[in-house]
Amino acid sequence: MATLTAVKFPTPSGADAALTILERLQREGSITVHDGAIVSWADGAKKPKTRQLNHLAGAGALGGGFWGLLFGLIFFIPLLGLLVGAAVGAASASMADVGIDDDFIKEVRDKVTPGTSALFALTSDGVPDKVAAAFQGVEGEVLHTNLSSEQEKQLREVFDEAHAV
Fold first, then answer.
1. Phi/psi at 95 (nearest 5 deg)?
2. What is the pTM of this model?
3. What's the chain's average pLDDT?
């Protein structure tokens, strides 16, 4: 089963640094990346920059339409108002099918702000010890994952330890 994980970083370049680690882990065979995207939001910018990780995942398991819809719901919908109300309702319902609900959208909207970044990754076959060791000391906050409760706890501990340093 693939795992969708979203991690927020306290700098606009943090997600890119984490992506470098994820790329290395994939080359080593310690994780399989099926799809992903990065959001980076420079200080002073009106909106974030987003990009799909096509180079890691080929065509992508979720596709550009998924990421465009997700990021549209998170970052741009408040500007569109009621004109797209019905479309938003339908889109939100389809996102729920992959574990993305209104609470997730609100949390990302509230936490990924100017001066931050986030990495969204659909992965499988991760070797927990190697992944944890690779991200040791990286400052980030797990916003969402559909891992088991125990796996999620371990992932959160990796990033929480970086805050304590």
1. -65, -35
2. 0.77
3. 77
b/e per residue, 101-129, with b = 16+ CB within 10 A?
A: eeebbebbeeebeeebbbbbbbbeebeee
> How much is the pLDDT for 105?
79
Exposure of 6 in the CB half-sphere (CA atoms within 13 A): 21
Which tokens hold the place of 63? 């596709």
The span from the CA of 17 to the CA of 9, in Å, is: 10
Q: In what order do the strands lie in the sheet with 116-124?
A: 49-52, 32-41, 116-124, 3-9, 141-145
Give the pLDDT score at 11: 97
Gap between the Cα atoms of 149 and 20, Å rounded: 26
* Distance separating the N- and C-terminal Cα atoms of the chain: 33
Residue with tokens 């330890």: 161
Q: Give 101-113 pLDDT, tens digit per residue.
A: 678 778 888 999 9
